[in-house]
Write a structure and sequence with these properties.
Layout lengths: L2 E13 L9 E8 L9 E6 L2 E14 L3 H8 L5 E7 L7 E6 L2 H8 L4 E7 L2 H14 L40
Antiparallel strand pairs: 1-2, 1-4, 3-4, 5-6, 5-7
Helix pairs in contact: 1-3
Length: 176
C-alpha cells in the first residue's frame, strides 16, 4: 500500500487555572512543517501566564486507502491536522499521534485519557496531502447489494424456534 511519511512538529499552549483549585490546561496549538533543533518538551515563551511549549516531532503518515478521508478534510474549508497528546504536565506530555484523517482524529477523541485538538494544516503540508490524494485516490463506485429471495421450503441449518422437550435442560432427565 503506497504511503507518504512527513515529519511535523507540535506546539502546545498551557493556560493557567481558572480557579485556585483547578489545574492548568495543556492543549495542542499548532503543527509546524519542519522539526527544529530544539529538544522536545521545551518551554518557548511565556506571556501573561500563558506558556507555549514545543512538545516534539512526530511522523504524519498518509495511506493510499485513506485518500477519500484526506479529500474530505481538504474540501472542508478549514483543512486540519488532528493532534492527540497524553498528559497535562508539559515536561512529560507525549504526542500519541498526528493525523490528517478526520475520522481517525474523531476516533482518538473518544479516548478519555487523550487531549485531541484539530489544529490548522500548514500550507506546504496541505499541498503535499493534496498531491498524495490526486496521485493515489481511486474512486470506488457505490454498488448496492441485492438480497437473495428466501425459499420457505428449503431446509435450513439453523436451530428450530421452539425446542423440543428432549432438547431442553429443565425437563430432560439425561441432562441432570
Amino acid at each position: 500500500m503506497p504511503q507518504d511519511v512527513m515529519r511535523v512538529s507540535v506546539l502546545a499552549v498551557r493556560r493557567p487555572p481558572v480557579t485556585r483549585w483547578g489545574a492548568g490546561e495543556l492543549r495542542p496549538l499548532a503543527v509546524l512543517s519542519q522539526e527544529p533543533e530544539t529538544p522536545a518538551n521545551t518551554l518557548i515563551s511565556t506571556e501573561n501566564g500563558i506558556e507555549t511549549w514545543y512538545l516534539g516531532g512526530r511522523d504524519l503518515v498518509l495511506y493510499s486507502g485513506d485518500t477519500a478521508h484526506h479529500r474530505d478534510n481538504l474540501n472542508s474549508g478549514t483543512p486540519s491536522i488532528w493532534v492527540a497528546i497524553r498528559g497535562q504536565s508539559p515536561e512529560r506530555a507525549e504526542i500519541i499521534n498526528v493525523t490528517a484523517d478526520p475520522y481517525e482524529g474523531e476516533g482518538y477523541a473518544s479516548d478519555q485519557d487523550l487531549i485531541v485538538e484539530a489544529v490548522p494544516m500548514p500550507g506546504n503540508v496541505r499541498d503535499r496531502v493534496a498531491a498524495f490524494v490526486t496521485t493515489h485516490h481511486v474512486e470506488i463506485p457505490f454498488k448496492k447489494r441485492k438480497r437473495l429471495p428466501a425459499d420457505p421450503n428449503a431446509m435450513t441449518a439453523r436451530a428450530p424456534r421452539i425446542l423440543q422437550d428432549v432438547d431442553k435442560w429443565v425437563n430432560n432427565p439425561r441432562r441432570r
